[in-house]
Amino acid sequence: MEPREQLDVALVQVAADLDPTVNRERLADLVPSGHDLVVLPEAFARDFGDPGSDVSVYAEPIPGPFAAEVARVAQQRGTTVVAGMFETAVDTARPFNTLVARGAVDRDYRKIHLYDSFGYRESDRLSAGPVEHCLAGLGGFTLGLMTCYDLRFPELARALVAEGADVLVVPSAWVAGPRKVDHWVTLARARAIENTAYVVACGQPGPRYTGHSLVVDPLGDVLVEGGDGEETLTATLERRVLDEARRTNPSLLNRRL
Question: Would I find Membrane among this entry's keywords (predicted)?
Fold first, then answer.
């Protein structure tokens, strides 16, 4: 089968409930049909709750109820779904912050960089994932998975692209505050520009989080950007745009370090 020339994506910018059953039961209504890739936010299976609160009681194994429902809905809709959850770890008091991707791909990514910044200490309650790069092929494109705070680490994005990623998928729960929307948008555009890659970044909405889910093309143009409320955004990623960007700005080929 020849690689497809485009990938249709949907970003579901929705707030996670504190009840995992509610979130699991909402999946079927939230995931739209007619898209190759549907991205939900970080921690969608259950929100973080109050800062510093214990989330270990909401951790699930993989396979488990949430991952199974993501797979079921993805199959029902004929799509690939990426969504965040807390996954049981060896240290049962500190689970992983994990993305599950189900549908045409079957991958799990455990967040490498924990959010010990801006007065928060995610590492007090969660375990960092191993330093492993999570990539998956989808419709002739290669996805590289990252989570929220990972966006502030250009070396991870570059490593994913060096291994073949041309779409960086970034589910998030980007905490609101001064300059935070500007950081979110600026960093998403920077990761796209410096790697001549698409960035598909889906966050939870306000008031706690910033919202502003967005898709950025490989030359840094914002194809779609949400506001701070709940909404579903759509965009089309085009192979010709990716190829032309890498011809126009061959920075990946010009690297010397």
Answer: no
Which of 60, 69, 111, 202 is catalytic? The answer is 111
| Both tokens assigned to 48 | 């973080």
For residue 22, give both structure tokens.
């509610």
Structure tokens at 109: 């990514």
Report CA 153 to chain centroid distance, whole Å. 14
Catalytic annotation on 180?
no
> Tell me: the pLDDT tens digits for 160-187?
999 999 999 999 999 999 999 999 999 9
- What six digits make up the tokens of 241? 């745009």
Determine the Cα–Cα distance for residues 163 and 220; give it in Å rounded to an integer.
Answer: 21
Could you tell me the domains of the chain?
6-248 (3.60.110.10)
Residue 87 appears among annotated catalytic residues: no
Average confidence (pLDDT) over 127-150: 97
User: Of 42, 69, 122, 225, which is the active-site residue?
Assistant: 42
**How far is residue 57's CA from residue 97's CA, in Å, rounded to a whole number?**
13
Q: Which of 223, 215, 213, 220 is nearest to 249 (CA)?
A: 220
